[in-house]
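Encode chain A's predicted structure.
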Amino acid sequence: MIDDSDHTIYETSTSSGAPQYRLARLGNFARIAAKSLLPLVIVAAVLYALYAYPPLQNIPRGEVGVRLNQITGTSSSIFEGTALVIPGLHSLRRLPMREQIYRPNADAKTQDKHNFQSLEGLSIGVDLSVRYAIDPAKLAEAARNLPENIGSDAIAPALDGVLYKILARYTVREIFSVKRQEIKDSIENELRPLLAQDGLQLKSILIGKIDLPKGYKVGMESLLGEELASEKMRYTLALKEKQVLQSGLEADAAKVQREKLAEAAGEEQIIAAKAQAEA
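Encoded structure for chain A:
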């Protein structure tokens, strides 16, 4: 009989025992199938784990692999070779050992943020390049703490804070021309210890193009041109003054030499006259 209310099937008579026999056979078949499929499931799981988390990972040239033990917290460094990474026990972080260059203006995350203010309150853009490297003595700390995108997530925030503070001390003219080296040195001195906290070594920074406000750049270039012309004039006048001084010294020297020659000639004439008188 079939009961449509709960979609179940049952036998109206169990005197022969046939339904129980069929159910027993189905149960045995299910157990046999489960036992047969279990090894396949285990093998498939192992193969997937090996595919997703390969135990042997290559460390290319110019990089270092820092293997962290998830249980003990210890770490080991592997330079250019094959590293054994056991899934669930180890994690591996690859870090570059060569010097890197970070350019904020080329970073999509930060290229619209690098407008700073000068001492006058004018907005300026600064094109910078930061040359850095991973500190070999702090590989474990760097592997644990550094984000995947080191430039925009680690260097950029520290660099922005330093630039906002330092550039606000100088006028646009000083930033644009006369105090670039001083500003560069100040940025390096303040940025270096901040990056060292994250296991990074600051090698140097390079200040490139300075974007000035519209209209201000023309005036600044004109002012610098006038200063250059004035400096050139001062140099020309100083050169001519030195030439005049040199001519005067040469004339004095020639005069002294003529006087000495005349004196020597007079002494010769006196000696000659004495000799004639004696004769």
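The CA atoms of residues 158 and 194 lie 7 Å apart.
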